[in-house]
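// run 5 | inverse folding | seed 20
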């Protein structure tokens, strides 16, 4: 008679107190991005007051670092982690991930304390390396559905090159044009990825939720948004405002189909819906800018703080909880962080568009709210990101 073997499982559980910062890309990059966000925006507010000088005009540094420092760190951490799920293939961990994080950090230090061509070289190194690593995995797995998402970091690398060439005077262009192009690419990425995950998260979490989705509308919203933001970045003028307004309407209708009202009792969901709403609001403000009604800064901060900041704080809490084996529930700390970022966006946009006399105070108030949000994130999530999953699984 055959005996039944009672061997121990071949996969060993990882003790929950194991140092695991380099186990998966979201860990170091979410941590670094949150730390940078908490520091860099107050630094900009102080520079805006004239109390300190930065190596380049302050608005250039601020715009660049919030896209190519903060947002890019989160995007790469998210895409590398999601890429492993999409393909079943490993993305960088351990030493390769350490090197990649060090390259990102070198870029931030160079931009903060240096000037000249060497700063451009150091800062430009990160995105091409990260984009190459990501595309290698996607192509190897033949994940064609995600090729465009994988190519966006490479496109952002070109926008960063444009910025540095303009700063160095190699080309005769406004460096902020490069930043507006980069912001447009980030919002396009949010449109694509947000359109996949936000309705899915809602459907999975809210029992019996009714949703309406249409593939043609999804494509129309993404294409109109991309064209609108490209024309805006290139200064196309009033006629392009009509396309921005159309994109805003399409985005609002798309969001409405996901049934955002059904999420009002779940902060981990409503933060994503409210942040996505800022895409529609931002596009509407971009249209009003091109009609000469509101300053350009209103639309920029709606898209940069409200949409990008809101989606980031929502996603780096949700994905950190999920990928460390925890329940997908936002507590008081997370909810406070969500509210602080979204209120910061409202303060910054309203003081620019409606009460320009309060703009100086608006910068400082928004910077304080923003920084507090990411300090709360660091306080709550640093232990989660540095230690192993609570369920003992790798990653």
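// decoded
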């Amino acid at each position: 008679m055959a005996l039944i073997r009672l061997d121990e499982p071949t996969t060993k559980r990882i003790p929950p107190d194991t140092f695991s910062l380099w186990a998966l890309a979201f860990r170091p990059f979410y941590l670094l991005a949150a730390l940078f966000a908490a520091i860099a925006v107050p630094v900009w507010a102080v520079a805006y007051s004239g109390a300190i000088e930065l190596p380049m005009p302050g608005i250039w540094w601020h715009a660049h670092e919030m896209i190519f420092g903060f947002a890019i760190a989160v995007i790469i951490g998210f895409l590398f982690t999601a890429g492993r799920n999409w393909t079943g293939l490993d993305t960088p961990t351990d030493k390769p991930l350490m090197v990649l994080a060090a390259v990102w950090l070198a870029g931030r230090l160079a931009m903060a304390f240096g000037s000249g061509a060497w700063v451009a070289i150091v800062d430009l190194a990160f995105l091409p390396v990260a984009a190459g690593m990501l595309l290698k995995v996607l192509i190897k797995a033949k994940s064609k559905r995600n090729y465009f998402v994988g190519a966006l970091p490479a496109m952002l690398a070109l926008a960063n090159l444009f910025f540095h060439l303009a700063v160095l005077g190699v080309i005769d262009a406004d460096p902020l044009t490069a930043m507006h192009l980069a912001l447009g690419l980030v919002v396009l990425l949010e449109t694509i990825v947000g359109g996949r995950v936000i309705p899915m998260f809602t459907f999975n979490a809210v029992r019996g939720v009714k949703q309406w989705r249409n593939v043609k509308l999804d494509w129309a919203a993404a294409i109109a948004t991309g064209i609108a933001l490209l024309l805006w970045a290139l200064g196309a003028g009033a006629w392009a405002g009509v396309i921005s307004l159309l994109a805003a309407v399409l985005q609002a209708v798309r969001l409405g189909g996901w049934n955002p009202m059904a999420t009002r009792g779940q902060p981990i969901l409503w933060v994503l819906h409210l942040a996505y709403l800022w895409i529609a609001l931002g596009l509407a403000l971009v249209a009003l800018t091109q009609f000469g009604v509101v300053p350009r800064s209103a639309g920029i901060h709606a898209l940069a703080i409200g949409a990008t900041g809101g989606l980031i704080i929502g996603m780096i809490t949700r994905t950190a909880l999920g990928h460390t084996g925890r329940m997908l529930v936002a507590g008081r700390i997370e909810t406070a962080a969500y509210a602080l970022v979204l209120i910061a966006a409202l303060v910054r946009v309203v003081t620019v568009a409606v009460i320009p006399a309060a703009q100086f105070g608006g910068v400082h108030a928004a910077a304080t709210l923003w920084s507090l949000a990411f300090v709360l994130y660091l306080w709550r999530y640093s232990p989660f990101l540095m230690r192993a999953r609570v369920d003992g699984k790798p990653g």
